[in-house]
Amino acid sequence: MSAGVYLHIPFCKSRCSYCDFATDVYRDSGAVDRYVSAICEEMYGSTDRTVVADTIYFGGGTPSVLTPKQVERILEAVNYQFDIDRNAEITMEMNPVTVTHETLRDYRSLGVNRASFGVQTFDDADLKRLARGHTADDARQTFRLLREAGFENVSFDLIIGLPRQTLADWEKNLEEALSMQPEHLSLYLLEIHQRTPLAEQIRSERQPMPDEELAAEMYELMLDKTSAGGFAQYEISNFSRPGFESRHNTKYWRLDPVYGFGVSAHSFDGYQRYSNERDTAAYVKRIDEFGGAEVMRERIDSASEYVFLGLRMTDGIELADYADRFGDDLGTKHSSDIDRLETEGLIDLSNGRVRLTKKGMLFSNEVFEVFV
After folding, report:
1. Which of 138, 88, 145 is nearest to 118 (CA)?
2. Which domain holds residue 111?
3. Please, are residues 12 and 60 in contact by the beta-carbon 8 Å criterion?
4. Segment 282-297, tens digit of pLDDT
5. Count: domains in the chain
6. Are residues 200 and 344 in the same domain?
7. CB neighbourhood size of 248 (10 A)
8. pTM over 0.70
């Protein structure tokens, strides 16, 4: 089985108010150079060079703060460690105002063939409240630059249920995104993480708590609009035109191997999950001293993870595949819970598969708790 490679680039021009990822504010090119050397050293220090990689994903943070030369160095290290499939999907997360026509052209020439583009909203007031550091016009210009540079696989990220966002606001966002005709949309319900500026703003009542019922209406509107616009939902938050599903992210939902490098990066080899140091400076120091930065390793209950990750996908779980993998019958193991969830209209059990219903997509955490 082919594997994915995840590369975490933590640097951002500024920190968004809702972000809970392992990030650092970009201060100088020297710090980025030292980090690039460390992530390459981590890969060169690995031992198994027999794995075929058919997806590579630069995540962050804001990977588009890297120079093309830095991207080239990292891809050379990936190529040293892995046998890269000639048709590999190579994704880079990008933010507006961090790219130019020249850098995008150079990324494309290095083999980056998919852009995951952090728009979040086309409303300038919301962008300012989120501390995004760009405007809606910046986002529109960046999309034009991506097309001019030859990117034919572009994904937008948008957030549902922002503080003060109305249903009409969300509809306007969706309509603009659809009118631009990207190949993929990632549409996420806002999550409020503790210890983020947004959580503090809500706690101190400087921002209102998002309305969950309104967010549910927004989600249903999203399903209708994306379907009418030619997008198929293939996961709770992800929609694509035919053939443009994210091959890399699908690996996580299908429990395929993904090897992560960089600060806070997580890996799964098919049996164990392990992760790196979360602090950037400590990560670089560990690589310098030990050649690795792993801080956690555990064997997972893969049967449980297979179920709740697989249920995120709209095609759900094939019961026969579950039985082949784990030597158990899911319907028998969770018979009473499955009956209850089916009665409540949260799942559909038919044709040898179990899937979330439209209602189940809205209340997915209640379903997932049954299988954890």
Report:
1. 138
2. 3-253
3. yes
4. 999 999 999 999 999 9
5. 2
6. no
7. 23
8. yes
